[in-house]
Caffeoyl-CoA O-methyltransferase
Amino acid sequence: MATTGETQPAKHQEVGHKSLLQSDALYQYILETSVYPREPESMKELREVTAKHPWNLMTTSADEGQFLNLLLKLINAKNTMEIGVYTGYSLLSTALALPEDGKILALDINRENYEIGLPIIEKAGVAHKIDFREGPALPLLDQMVEDAKFHGSFDFIFVDADKDNYLNYHKRLIDLVKIGGVIGYDNTLWNGSLVAPADAPLRKYVRYYRDFVLELNKALAADPRVEICQLPVGDGITLCRRIS
Ligand SMILES: C[S@@+](CC[C@H](N)C(=O)[O-])C[C@H]1O[C@@H](n2cnc3c(N)ncnc32)[C@H](O)[C@@H]1O
């Protein structure tokens, strides 16, 4: 789940879960039956530490973390990138999925939050796979696009940051992911707001980013360079497999 640091819409605060499922009980069933019992101890610890942080609604949900972990194993990912780290829940789920010599280039404008999770990542023995860079992602992606050695070099890229830049990211990431590799864009169902009536009482940030997410979804659906699948996991994740 990726949002800004602001509070979620009231409905989501009331239901207290991070899913687009309409049934709290069903979501709880998924967590308790299939997710929490299989969640690695380190991810549980990081989830609990993050829950105490004031911006905790930004964190990736446990079911999405489990999904990412399995997906990375299914595609045998080794070299990956993550844009939007926060305290590192999706980063840790990625690091645990990669082989010992796997790599994650992790980008975020905020190192302080990354450092909340770092001791847990270190204790889990996977910190050596992570190359964290503090700063806005776009200029770094521009540098990488300039350098042919990065072209087609990533097996998987997870984007969970500033929604108003997703299309800018896509323009660059399409060169950086390998053919057959996958880019995952998070929050592509944007709190369910994409189909809300024009006069619906949406939070300011939800309304602001909604148009960017709508535009992204349209652009991805029309992009012949990728095969796509939009999954209602967490706040919606769109997987794009590069085919040309
Ligand atoms: C929703 S959080 C990421 C959640 C994270 N994936 C997790 O599992 O907890 C979004 C993150 O994007 C970062 N961010 C926002 N704008 C950014 C930018 N231009 N470049 C890099 N990171 C950015 C924020 O600092 C924040 O930590």
User: Anything to note?
Assistant: Strands lie at 79-83, 103-108, 130-134, 154-159, 177-186, 226-231, 237-242. Residues 132 and 214 are 30 Å apart (CA to CA).
